[in-house]
Every structure is written in structure tokens, then in C-alpha cells.
């Protein structure tokens, strides 16, 4: 009892706490998504995400102390209270799963890692928060925006930063190697779930085609004005002679470093007679047999690899055989599997984000 009244005395004003939570949740979602999808280089984002997440934890302690009586006394409930309670549960679960993954933990649920659970819970909190705001949003008053509130919320931010540094030290001591994207080495997560390589077979949403008959398969290489041509599997193997040691970093939360072998995409385009030297030739799009696709700026695409093998072994079906894109420094979901078409484009392809969610569905 004495503890909770001390907590109340230390707390910034209610509206200041609520608005700080709102800003912090928006920042956590933005930094988390940008780092996880690889939209922006994750190095700084991941620190910001961790600090903001831990600051939310501190803010929620004050918030829960304030509303505890309202929630525990059913007589004080109104129509919006169940949603608030659900939000509390989802927010705490998102925070706990994030910290647990960050210090090296993982409790997989089917094919989903704890990182997937953390991302899912964080995204689930957004619509619930919007409903909560609809019922409860109040504008801050002048006293809410005082020097005292700023100092207290600043103090929480400093505490969040210190705990973040501490959690990084814990992971370092435990020998867990987490990349800035949040991914861990496969060996720490999976023992068996692999096919033709020492890393798991995963696909973004619904892509799961039948194994491809290499004797029937052809690769179309298309330029802007009808130039280009078709290649059989044997032609592609004959052209293959390049190698990249590159990190496949999957959004499920694992990474693997492999020696990928195949054809440099620049050589593939040149050999097919596709002219990438004009001002109009800006993007190269890689299209899978499932319709899944991704595009890279032409200079980056030329240095990427269309891989047919790993360490001398033919690329297995699950890993995208006959041929998959290897785009170093990009996230795994951009390394298109089962490529059947490589095409030069004038424009980027914004619809590719939507296609990653729906390709593979009949
Ligand atoms: C993850 C974020 C949040 C969680 C987990 C959360 C949770 C809760 C809970 C459990 C209650 C008590 C039940 C009720 O009165 O409905 C509550 C009340 C309330 N919340 Fe939130 N909330 C969050 C974010 C926000 C934000 C961003 C705002 C406004 C900017 C806000 C404003 C309010 C208000 C005004 C109340 C009424 C109670 C009071 O003022 O003491 N909440 N919230």
C-alpha cells in the first residue's frame, strides 16, 4: 500500500503519462517495423526500439498504479473497460516477448519464433489502442506539460536507456549473437527443420509451390523493348561460375552465412542481350513461379547473384531451386525463391509489398 502511494507521488501527471505512452508506442512500432523489414539500416533503429520499449514498460507501471482501483472494482467498469484490460494484456505480452527474445530466449509456437510473436503482439496492440483512444482520449492541460512532467518522463527515458544497455550486456555474457535486425544464428533456434542445407525452409505467408521439374523449367530474361530471351536450366548452369559469401537474414528471426553459387545478374542480363546502360533502365524485377516478386535498383541488381547451388550442392526445392535471388544486405523475404523471370524496368514496383502477402494463394 505504502509502495503504491509512493509510486503515485513519483508519477508524472496522468495526461502526461498517457501522451508519453502514445508517442512511445508510435515510435516503438515505427522503429521496430523499419528495422525488422530492413527498410532503413537497422543499427540505430534497434537501439531506439529497445530504449523506447523499456520506457513504455516504466510508463505502464505508473499507468497501471493509477488505474488499478478502477480495474479491480467491477462496479467502476464501463463499456470501454474490457478493451482497456485487453490492451494492457497485449501490451505487457509484447513487452515481455521482446525482452525475452532480446536476452536470448525463444519458445517457438509451430513455425513461429518468439520474435514473430513479439512483432504480431506489437501490431495487434495498434487497433486495440485506437479503440481505447476513441473512448478515453483527453487533451493534456497546462499542468500536464510542466517542467516536473518533463523531468520525470526524461528520467524514465534515461532509466530505459540504462536497462537497455544492461540487457545488451546480459546477451553478450550469455554469448548470444543477435544481429541489429533482431536475428540469431540458426543453430541457437533449430536442430532439424532443414532441407538440403544447414538452415530452415521458410516462406513469407503462403508461397509453397510443387517441386519444379528442372528439365521443363525456363528462365525468361527480359529487357525494356522486347529484347532478352529464354534460358533452360542447363544454360543457366553453364553460365554459373560466380560465388558470394552472404548472410541470409530471415524475418522469422534467424540468419545463416552460406557460400552461394550461381550467375552474377549483371552477366545474366548482358548475356541475354539486355541493355542496362540506358537512362531508362533503372530497376530489375525478379519474379517467382508463385507470382511473388521483388525489384532492386539496377546497379545493386547487377551485383546480386541468381543462385543455383550452395557450397557445391544443388539448391534444394525448399530453398528456392532451381534458382533464387541472393541480394546481400537485404532481408530474406527479398531474396525471391523459384525465380522464373528477370526483367528490366523503368519504374519501381510499389505493389510488390502487397504481393508478398497474397502470392501463393489460389
Ligand atoms: C499500450 C498502451 C496503453 C495501455 C496498456 C493502457 C491501459 C489502460 C487501462 C488498463 C486503463 C484502465 C481501464 C479503463 O479505465 O478503461 C486505461 C485507462 C485510461 N487510458 Fe489507457 N492505456 C494505454 C494507452 C493510452 C493512451 C495512449 C492514452 C491517451 C493518450 C490513454 C488514456 C487513458 C485514459 C484517459 C484512461 C482513463 C482512466 C484515467 O484517466 O485514469 N491510454 N488505460
Overall number of domains: 2
Q: Give the helix proportion (percent range).
A: 40-55%
The biggest beta sheet reads: 6 strands, mixed
Discrete helix count: 10
Poorly predicted runs of 5 or more residues: none
Radius of gyration: 25 Å
User: H/E order of the elements?
Assistant: HHHHHHEEEHEEHEEHEEEEH
Overall body shape: elongated
Question: What small molecules does this complex bind?
Answer: protoporphyrin IX containing FE
Give me the secondary-structure category.
alpha+beta
Q: What would the average pLDDT be, to the nearest integer?
A: 89
Total number of β-strand segments? Answer: 11
The amount of beta strand, in percent, is 15-25%
Distance between the termini: 59 Å
Annotate the secondary structure layout.
Blueprint: H1 2-10, H2 14-37, H3 42-72, H4 81-102, H5 114-136, H6 147-173, E1 184-185, E2 218-222, E3 228-232, H7 233-239, E4 242-250, E5 254-264, H8 265-271, E6 283-288, E7 293-297, H9 298-303, E8 305-310, E9 313-314, E10 324-326, E11 339-345, H10 352-358
Parallel strand pairs: 1-5, 2-11
Antiparallel strand pairs: 2-3, 4-5, 5-8, 6-7, 6-11, 8-9, 8-10
The protein binds protoporphyrin IX containing FE.
Protein described:
This protein has 362 residues and is of the alpha+beta class. The chain has helices at 2-10, 14-37, 42-72, 81-102, 114-136, 147-173, 233-239, 265-271, 298-303, 352-358, and strands spanning 184-185, 218-222, 228-232, 242-250, 254-264, 283-288, 293-297, 305-310, 313-314, 324-326, 339-345. It folds into 2 domains: 2-175, no CATH class; 218-358, Alpha-Beta Complex (Sulfite Oxidase, Chain A, domain 2). The strands form 2 sheets. Strands 1, 4, 5, 8, 9 and 10 form a 6-stranded mixed β-sheet that branches. The model has no long low-confidence stretch (mean pLDDT 89).
Amino acid at each position: 500500500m505504502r509502495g503504491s502511494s509512493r509510486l503515485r507521488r513519483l508519477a508524472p501527471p496522468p495526461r502526461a503519462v498517457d501522451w508519453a505512452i502514445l508517442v512511445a508506442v508510435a515510435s516503438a512500432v515505427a522503429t521496430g517495423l523499419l528495422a525488422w523489414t530492413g527498410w532503413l539500416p537497422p543499427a540505430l533503429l534497434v537501439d531506439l526500439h529497445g530504449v523506447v520499449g523499456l520506457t513504455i514498460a516504466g510508463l505502464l507501471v505508473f499507468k497501471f498504479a493509477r488505474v488499478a482501483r478502477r480495474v479491480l472494482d467491477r462496479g467502476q467498469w464501463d463499456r470501454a473497460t474490457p478493451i482497456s484490460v485487453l490492451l494492457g494484456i497485449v501490451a505487457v505480452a509484447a513487452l515481455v516477448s521482446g525482452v525475452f527474445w532480446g536476452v536470448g530466449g525463444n519458445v517457438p509456437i509451430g513455425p513461429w519464433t518468439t520474435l514473430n510473436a513479439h512483432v504480431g503482439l506489437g501490431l495487434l496492440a495498434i487497433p486495440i489502442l485506437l479503440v481505447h483512444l476513441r473512448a478515453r482520449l483527453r487533451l493534456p492541460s497546462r499542468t500536464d506539460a510542466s517542467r516536473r512532467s518533463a523531468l520525470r518522463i526524461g528520467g524514465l527515458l534515461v532509466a530505459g536507456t540504462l536497462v537497455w544497455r544492461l540487457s545488451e550486456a546480459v546477451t553478450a555474457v550469455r554469448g548470444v549473437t543477435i544481429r541489429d535486425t533482431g536475428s540469431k544464428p540458426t543453430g541457437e533456434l533449430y536442430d532439424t527443420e532443414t532441407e538440403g542445407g544447414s538452415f530452415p525452409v521458410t516462406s513469407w505467408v503462403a508461397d509453397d509451390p510443387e517441386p519444379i521439374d528442372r528439365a521443363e523449367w525456363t528462365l525468361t530474361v527480359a529487357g525494356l523493348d522486347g529484347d532478352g530471351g529464354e534460358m533452360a536450366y542447363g544454360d543457366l548452369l553453364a553460365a554459373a561460375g560466380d560465388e558470394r559469401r552472404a548472410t541470409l537474414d530471415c524475418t522469422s528471426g534467424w540468419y545463416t552465412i552460406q557460400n552461394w553459387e550461381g550467375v552474377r545478374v549483371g552477366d545474366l542480363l548482358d548475356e541475354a542481350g539486355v541493355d542496362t546502360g540506358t537512362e531508362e533502365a533503372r530497376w530489375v524485377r525478379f519474379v517467382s513461379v508463385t507470382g511473388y516478386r521483388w525489384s532492386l535498383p539496377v546497379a545493386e541488381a547487377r551485383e546480386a547473384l541468381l543462385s543455383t547451388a550452395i557450397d557445391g550442392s544443388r539448391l534444394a526445392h525448399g530453398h528456392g531451386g532451381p534458382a533464387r535471388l541472393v541480394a546481400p544486405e537485404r532481408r530474406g523475404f527479398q531474396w525471391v525463391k523459384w525465380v522464373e523471370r528477370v526483367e528490366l524496368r523503368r519504374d519501381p514496383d510499389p505493389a510488390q509489398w502487397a504481393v508478398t502477402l497474397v502470392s501463393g494463394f489460389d
